[in-house]
Amino acid sequence: xxxxxxxxxxxxxxxxxxxxxxxxxxxxxxxxxxxxxxxxxxxxxxxxxxxxxxxxxxxxxxxxxxxxxxxxxxxxxxxxxxxxxxxxxxxxxxxxxx
Length: 98
Hints:
The protein is of the alpha+beta class. The chain contains three helices and seven strands. It has helices spanning 9-16, 20-34, 87-94; strands at 4-7, 46-48, 52-54, 57-61, 65-72, 75-83, 96-97. Strands 1-6-5-4-2 form a five-stranded mixed beta sheet. A two-stranded antiparallel sheet has the order 3-7. It is globular, with a radius of gyration of 12 Å.
C-alpha cells in the first residue's frame, strides 16, 4: 500500500531550516520508510511512542534528526522534524500524552 505523505506547517518550516545535505537525507528517509510501511517498527529506525496520543511515531534520520508523525488511514502526516537534542522539549510542548 502506498501512503500519501502530508506535511504540517511546522514540519515544512523545520524542513526549510535544515542544511541542504540534511534535507536530502530526511527526504530520502521519509520516502524509503514512510511511503510504504510507516508502522513497521524497528530497533532503531522507527518507534511507536509510548504514552502519547500524538505524535504516534518517531523516525530516526542519521544520528541527530528525528521526524515525528501520525498515521491515519492511507496517509502519513509529518508533524515536526527536530534535532535529537530538542526532542524532549518538543514532546513536552507539542506532544499529547495519553
